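Entry 14. Ran structure prediction on the chain below.
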Amino acid sequence: MTEYKIGDTITAKFPPAFQDETVVVGVIREFKGEMICCNQVGTNKPFFCLAEEVINEKPMTEVQRNIAVANSIIDELHKDKPFVLKLGVEQRKHFLLVLGEAKIDFKIIHHANGCDILIEESIVHPLYAVMANYIAKHEKPKNDIDDFIASGEFDKAFKNVFGLPKSVVKSLKEVS
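Output, structure tokens:
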């Protein structure tokens, strides 16, 4: 297992208790024995998990963290407006990176624990557009062909299709 540290973003999957399984993305805030204590990305709600409940073995890259924060913000935009979106310190950092040079007129209050953003109806569409465009630009879809080639299955599947002519194979055997 990868060693985690405070500030890492992890994804935890919990088995179903009453409904479907639950998947939560959070930033590690502390360790208590075997428990990993986190704050959920976007909502900043506390949760805890065990290392075996973490489903991303590799720590997330900065772009992956940015995408996680952008997705969590998009998930919050459906709420009745106005409302205050609370972001922790790490979420604020990634939110501002995603926001970049975008010109959206919104109210934000920075404090030691992160920030509070007033979400009003007038900023929902521009904010959604910025978050969605960032995700579309930076999210890399899984490339199954690379896995197929790396596993050796490509070579097995096409061994006879792309083989060298028999005369060339015979000549190569003679040379070696």
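The chain has a mean pLDDT of 84. Will compare against last week's run tomorrow.
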